[in-house]
Write a structure and sequence with these properties.
Blueprint: E1 9-10, E2 17-18, E3 24-27, E4 30-33, E5 51-54, E6 57-60, H1 61-67, E7 83-85, E8 88-90, E9 109-111, E10 117-119, H2 120-127, E11 150-152, E12 155-157, H3 189-206
Antiparallel strand pairs: 1-2, 3-4, 5-6, 7-8, 9-10, 11-12
């Protein structure tokens, strides 16, 4: 901050006149004795030194930094913009997904039971149920917030993976709509009937 010598002005700290060349300085639009212009915390003299003014109070650089909140990730003081999330403070560049490490500043995110921060996509990849056919997570398509999961015989399916095990027909639409399980197999009505006929015929020949 610029300083200048002043004469016959009152010191903003002690209230006494500032008299004599080199005994005073100006800062924060106020006049101080050189000996009175000190850090509000450690009392080190600030004339000619970098300082920070907060609500008309002067801080030396180390004391000012000690007043700042620390980032929950890197533990360093946050000198500029503070990002607040989950009740904690972060540097914007430190607030990242624990899996892909992408910055989540301004991006939707979620937190798992352990308090770890995830982008929405990686959260679904990690915790979404997996299709029993393709083994991939059942999660919303990009840009979507919801998806459909089919559960049959205590197994999870994508809509496009929910097919008859014999003919491969989709069980969620068309003439084969509906599941007719048999002996733990996912079947359409036609294939279910065919298997029953085979089993019945075999049982008859075994008699």
């Amino acid at each position: 901050m610029p300083t200048s010598n002043v004469t016959f002005c009152r010191c903003a700290r002690c209230g006494e006149n500032v008299v004599g060349e080199g005994t005073g300085c100006t800062a924060m639009d106020q006049v101080f004795h050189v000996d009175c212009f000190t850090c509000i915390i450690c009392n080190n003299k600030l004339r000619g030194q970098p300082f920070y003014a907060v609500e008309k109070k002067a801080y030396c650089e180390p004391c000012y930094i000690n007043t700042l909140e620390q980032c929950n990730v890197c533990s360093k003081p946050i000198m500029e913009r503070i990002l607040r999330a989950t009740g904690k403070a972060y540097h914007p560049h430190c607030f990242t997904c624990v899996m892909c490490h992408r910055s989540l500043d301004g991006i939707p995110f979620t937190v798992d039971a352990g308090g770890l921060i995830h982008c929405i996509e990686d959260f679904h990849k990690k915790f979404a149920p997996r299709c029993s056919v393709c083994k991939e997570p059942i999660m919303p398509a990009p840009g979507q917030e919801e998806t459909v999961r089919i559960v049959a015989l205590d197994r999870d399916f994508h809509v496009h993976c929910y097919r008859c095990e014999d003919c491969g027909g989709l069980l969620s639409e068309g003439d084969n709509q509906g599941c007719y399980p048999l002996d733990g197999h996912i079947l359409c009505k036609t294939c279910n009937s065919a298997r029953i006929r085979v089993l019945t015929a075999k049982a008859s020949t075994d008699l």
